[in-house]
Structure formats: C-alpha cells, structure tokens
C-alpha cells in the first residue's frame, strides 16, 4: 500500500479472521488543524475517527501506523464483547439455576444452606466457613443425590443442544435434531436388549445399559453414514432419509421386543421417554469425557461450518475439505448424542427448540451459536428436570414429557412460520 493510500476496509482471511491493515492513527489525524482536516475530507473529529480509510488523498505529512484499535472495536470487537457479555450472563444464570434446583425435593433445604455446603467444599475456603445448623443427612442429599442429577442434566442438555446446532447447519434443515440420524433409536434398541437379557447387567452392573446403548447408537450412526455414502461423498439429503428409514426400522424392532417380552416394560418405557431418576456421579463420570470431546470438535470446526453453509462448492473453492469436515462434525454429534441418550434415555426436542431459540438471539454465526446454545440447553434441561420432580410429587414423571410439552407447540410454530412468514 502506498504512503498516501489507505485500505477502505480490512481484508478477511480465508477462515473469516481480520487481516492487519494500515491507516492513519488517531494521533496523526488529531494533529491536523481544522483547515487541513477539511482539505483531507474530514469535517469533524468524529468523522476523522470513523472515516480514517475513506479518503485516498490525505496530506502526505500524516504518518502511518499499524491497525487502528478503535476501528477494530467499532467493526469487529464490539460484537465480540457483546457475545462475551452474553456468554458471561448465561454462565451466571446457569450457576444460579444449579443452586436453585439443588434445593428442590422432598426435603426442604434452603438456598443459603446449599450455597454454604458447596462453599465449605472449596479447599481454600472450607475451613473459614462455619457449618450451618442442618441435619447430617442434608449434605448427603444435596451433594450426592441432587447436585449430581443437576450436573448430569446440564451435560445432557448442553450436548443435545450443541449437536442440534451442528446437524441443523450441516444438513441445512431447520427441523433436524440430534435424533434424526437414528442414533436414539439404535441406543433405545441396545438399552432394551440390555434390560431384557440381564446378562450384561450381571457383568457390568449399573454401567450395562449406558454402555450397550452407547455402542448401539454409535453403530447405528456408522450404518446410516455408510448407507448414504456414494463413492467418497455423502449427500446430506440422502443421509437424512437414511437416518429416518433406519430409525423407523429400529423403533419397530424395539416395540416388538417390548410387547413380546412381558417383563421390564415399565422400566424400558421410562427409559425411552427419558429421565434422570436414579442417576448419580458415576453417570456424570461416564458422560463427561464424551461431551467434552464432542463439543471441542464442534467448537474447533465452527468457522469452517460457517463457510460450508454457503454451499459445498464455494467452501471447496476456499480450500476447505468438505467431506472431511462432514465426518468430523458427524462424529462429534454422534459422540455427544449417543452418550447423552445412553445415560438419560431419549429426551425429545432439546436439540430442536434450543438451537432455534438461541439463533433468534445471536444469529447464525456458529462461533457464538454453539456456546450460547450449549449453555441455554443446560439451563433448559435443568429447569425441565426440576419441574418433572415436583409436577406430580411425590411421584416423578420422566423429563422427556416436560420437554415434549414445551417442544411440541414450538415445533408447530416453526412449521407455521416456515409456510407463513407473517405468522
């Protein structure tokens, strides 16, 4: 760039990052008097700041610097700080939701007592906080039973919501959810087989149903992918249809097994609707690594997913290996979905309604959409589980019923909105 010239706007690199540009620093422009600024095309000092790159014929004695910070703040970093503020708010809401929902249950335990119990567990502050006047079993109820359940609900909600975001973007279908590839139906069949056989229960104990369900869900996704593959390419529309067909077939087998078995039908039905009854820290330990790995893969691929949304050919022209990205994102979505279904059963609509609701707030940029959807999904499922515990107390209903009651009307709204934009 010449000494007198100036970029009219910053260049974008292939992955969407801003490249460094050169233009007049604020000090150089502010050193001009009113007549010189007028000659350069700047009427006011604000115009000098906002239009630094608007005039190619500025006085030659203005020195040039590197990237002007305020220009970046006004164009790019302003959005970044707004997104960071939103994520910080969601993290605060998530923490508050965890504490509030840990107070819900047959035993009346206050918010302050729950907070004190948690603070006393901190290694650097536990000895400084006096123990409250509560029964000895309250800490067991909160820390071993309620908190583990709340954390598990947060992980499942975050995983399903993030998977929904990725699959809706990858399949270019707003009605897609994490179960559309037949993963849930495969996991349900595996869990049904584990419950009815009893052999795996004797060998693996409480891990039997989650492990068998995870393996079955993972195997189903591999089968669907191979059915949809033609040569070395996978058409997303074919993948979608293959997932629906395989899911219906596996659901029929599961229903037949339930009808003919005559035993454990209530347990199987409860699991297929989805819930967190009887879950503890062991299930959290089983789920956490899969959610972490799956979400990390999704987040690292967010920029490239933004480009893929433009179309496969434009993405290839920009240097992105589209087929490789499809495999990576499908593996990530499968890991999170299969592991979530394995520990909680089939919880419907979380991966459908949360991505749409968050997209209305933050837009389609997956770099922001993924973390905000994950946090919102965690908050939503924690609250749904809390409602499931108290809606029919002292009985407990599956949390999948609550999410279906919320998701059904929202799904109808999406259908009407798609057919009638003025709705």
From TrEMBL:
Keywords: Cell membrane, Membrane, Transmembrane, Transmembrane helix, Transport
InterPro entries in alphabetical order: ABC_BtuC-like, ABC_transptr_permease_BtuC
Signal peptide: none
Keyword Hydrolase: no
Membrane topology per record: Multi-pass membrane protein
Membrane-spanning intervals of the chain: 85-109, 150-172, 179-199, 205-227, 239-259, 288-309, 329-356, 368-391, 397-415
Keyword Zinc: no
Gene Ontology CC terms: plasma membrane
Molecular function, one GO term: transmembrane transporter activity
Main location: membrane
Gene3D superfamilies: ABC transporter involved in vitamin B12 uptake, BtuC
Location in the cell: Cell membrane
Family: Belongs to the binding-protein-dependent transport system permease family. FecCD subfamily.
Protein name in the entry: Hemin transport system permease protein HmuU
């Amino acid at each position: 760039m010449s000494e007198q010239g100036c970029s009219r706007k910053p260049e974008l690199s292939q992955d969407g990052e801003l490249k460094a540009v050169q233009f007049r620093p604020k000090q150089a422009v502010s050193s001009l008097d009113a007549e010189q600024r007028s000659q350069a095309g700047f009427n006011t000092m604000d115009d000098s700041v906002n239009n630094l790159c608007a005039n190619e014929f500025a006085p030659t004695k203005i020195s040039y610097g590197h990237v002007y910070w305020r220009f970046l703040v006004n164009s790019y970093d302003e959005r970044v700080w707004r997104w960071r503020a939103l994520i910080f708010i969601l993290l605060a809401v998530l923490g508050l939701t965890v504490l509030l929902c840990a107070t819900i249950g047959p035993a009346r335990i206050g918010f302050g007592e729950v907070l004190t119990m948690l603070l006393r567990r901190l290694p650097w502050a536990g000895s400084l906080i006096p123990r409250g006047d509560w029964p000895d079993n309250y800490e067991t109820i909160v820390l071993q039973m309620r908190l583990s359940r709340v954390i598990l609900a947060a992980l499942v909600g975050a995983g399903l919501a993030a998977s929904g975001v990725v699959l809706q973007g990858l399949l270019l279908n707003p009605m897609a959810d994490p179960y559309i590839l037949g993963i849930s139906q495969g996991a349900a069949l595996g869990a049904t087989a584990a419950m009815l056989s009893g052999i795996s229960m004797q060998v693996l104990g409480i891990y039997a149903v989650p492990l068998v369900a995870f393996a079955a869900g993972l195997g189903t996704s591999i089968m669907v992918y191979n059915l949809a593959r033609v040569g070395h390419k996978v058409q997303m529309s074919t993948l979608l249809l293959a997932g629906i067909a395989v899911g219906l077939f596996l659901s029929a087998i599961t229903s037949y097994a339930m009808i003919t078995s005559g035993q454990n039908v209530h347990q199987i039905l409860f699991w297929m609707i989805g819930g967190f009854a009887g879950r503890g820290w062991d299930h959290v330990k089983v789920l956490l690594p899969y959610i972490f790995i799956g979400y990390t893969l999704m987040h690292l691929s967010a920029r490239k997913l933004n480009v893929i949304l433009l179309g496969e050919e434009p993405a290839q022209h920009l240097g992105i290996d589209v087929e490789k990205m499809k495999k990576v994102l499908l593996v990530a979505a499968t890991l999170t979905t299969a592991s979530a279904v394995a520990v909680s059963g089939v919880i419907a609509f979380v991966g459908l309604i949360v991505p749409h609701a968050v997209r209305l707030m933050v837009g389609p940029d997956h770099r922001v959409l993924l973390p905000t959807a994950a946090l919102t999904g965690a908050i939503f499922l924690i609250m749904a589980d809390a409602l499931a515990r108290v809606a029919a107390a002292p009985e407990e209903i599956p949390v999948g019923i609550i999410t279906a009651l919320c998701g059904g009307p929202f799904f109808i709204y999406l259908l009407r909105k798609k057919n009638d934009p003025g709705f």
